[in-house]
């Protein structure tokens, strides 16, 4: 049976009305009482009714401002925006080292702009029970804790690729580079990109976004590794060991015997034969693995490549070569299906922040 507000009330030793006031972040509730209620919420695994909460906070959505926070594998990006607007304001970028003072940074934004009533986080990691633990470092964020700690009316936590997926419907032609025009045949899109790891999400009918952890799956394609000349690299255990910034560096190290960051490899493409070889192999591996994902998810609306690394590699992508590898070794029936899938590179920056803003704008529209 699911846990009810009555169960929380009994466990915390307070009235149901008090539990409701704490969960909805109402004023004039003692800190000690809040702590008791939130402790019971966490202990029992209680999940507040979001629809009911949203209806109660409808008025604040219509006039509030939102803070957007994107915590990626390398950097933190923060911006504010007016609900209903598509414009980001006060954008700020920090390295992940600032996580040690993360709460102070958030409080500083809130102190400087008292009209901020909502926060949307996009975070690199799987979302479980309204909280996310980051994939690549010891850091966890929880909706209940944020509501308890800060004076905001609502808090939403999204996986970073979930956020990007929510922004897909807003993209203009100028923000996309076409690799394959295709012929769309359903309403499912796959949005994917290599970065610190490999992120991906399915977007259905523009408003249902299903983030995946495909980058951490152990799908192995020995034939591909053999074709790429990478079969002797010992630490290619999951997909993102190859398809990520770190994967590009591993390929370079394998062939050159030296170390370079992904950024250094990209900038030396024309002057370093190993950089050129590594990038060409990396792009070939992306196209062939995308073919596997495409048959698994059938994204007839298109495959959308996103993120800073893939944007930096666009100048090296030969569309014909990319599609040749996308279709290689396929039966004619499956090759025909794959060829109809649009393949697009998103050149928009700060995609997570834009997607998070569209998420809360759509939520606001649904409440009107």
Topology:
Layout: H1 5-12, H2 16-23, H3 31-44, H4 50-56, H5 58-63, E1 65-71, E2 75-82, E3 89-95, H6 102-112, E4 116-123, E5 127-128, E6 131-133, E7 140-142, H7 143-149, E8 154-159, H8 160-166, E9 176-180, E10 188-194, E11 198-204, E12 208-212, H9 222-228, H10 239-242, H11 245-256, H12 262-267, H13 273-297, E13 302-305, H14 308-313, H15 319-327, H16 332-339, E14 343-346, H17 351-367
Parallel strand pairs: 1-4, 4-8, 10-13, 13-14
Antiparallel strand pairs: 1-2, 2-3, 5-6, 6-7, 9-14, 10-11, 11-12
Helix pairs in contact: 1-2, 1-3, 2-3, 8-17, 11-13, 13-15
Written overview of the protein:
The protein has 17 helices and 14 strands. With 368 residues, it is of the alpha/beta class. It folds into 3 domains: 5-48, lambda repressor-like DNA-binding domains (434 Repressor (Amino-terminal Domain), Orthogonal Bundle), CATH 1.10.260.40; 58-166 and 352-367, Nucleotidyltransferase, domain 5; 172-347, 3-Layer(aba) Sandwich (Hexokinase, domain 1), CATH 3.40.367. The longest helix is centred in the last third of the chain and has 25 residues, at 273-297. The two termini are 33 Å apart.
How would you describe the shape?
elongated
Annotated CATH architecture of the largest domain: 3-Layer(aba) Sandwich
Number of strands: 14
- Major sheet details: 6 strands, mixed
Approximate helicity band: 40-55%
């Amino acid at each position: 049976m699911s846990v009810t507000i009555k169960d929380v009330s009994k466990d915390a030793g307070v009235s149901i009305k008090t539990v409701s006031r704490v969960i909805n972040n109402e004023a004039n509730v003692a800190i000690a009482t809040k702590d008791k209620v939130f402790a019971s919420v966490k202990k029992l695994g209680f999940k507040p009714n979001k629809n009911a909460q949203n209806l109660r906070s409808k008025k604040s959505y219509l006039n509030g401002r939102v803070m957007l926070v994107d915590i990626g594998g390398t950097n933190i990006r923060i911006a504010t925006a007016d609900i209903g607007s598509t414009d980001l304001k006060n954008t700020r970028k920090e390295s992940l080292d600032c996580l040690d003072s993360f709460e102070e940074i958030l409080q500083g934004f809130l102190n400087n702009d008292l009209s901020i009533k909502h926060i949307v986080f996009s975070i690199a990691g799987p979302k479980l029970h309204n909280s996310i633990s980051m994939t690549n470092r010891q850091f966890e964020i929880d909706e209940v804790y944020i509501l308890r700690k800060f004076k905001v009316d609502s808090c939403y936590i999204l996986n970073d690729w979930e956020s990007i997926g929510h922004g897909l419907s807003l993209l203009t032609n100028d923000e996309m580079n076409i690799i394959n025009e295709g012929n769309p045949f359903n309403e499912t899109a796959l949005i994917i990109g290599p970065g610190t790891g490999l992120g991906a999400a399915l977007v259905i009918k523009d408003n249902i976004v299903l983030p995946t952890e495909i980058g951490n799956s152990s799908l192995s394609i020995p034939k591909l590794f053999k074709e790429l000349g990478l079969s002797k690299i010992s630490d290619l255990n999951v997909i993102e060991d190859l398809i990520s910034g770190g994967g590009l560096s591993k390929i370079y190290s394998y062939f050159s015997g030296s170390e370079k960051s992904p950024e250094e490899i990209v900038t030396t493409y024309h002057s370093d034969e190993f950089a050129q070889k590594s990038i060409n192999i990396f792009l070939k591996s992306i196209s062939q693995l995308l073919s596997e994902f495409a048959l698994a998810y059938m994204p007839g609306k298109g495959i959308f490549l996103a993120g800073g690394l893939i944007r930096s590699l666009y100048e090296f992508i030969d569309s014909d070569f990319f599609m040749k590898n996308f279709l290689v070794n396929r039966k004619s029936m499956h090759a025909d299906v794959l060829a109809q899938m649009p393949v697009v590179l998103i050149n928009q920056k700060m995609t997570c922040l834009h997607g998070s803003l569209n998420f809360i704008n759509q939520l606001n529209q649904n409440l009107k």
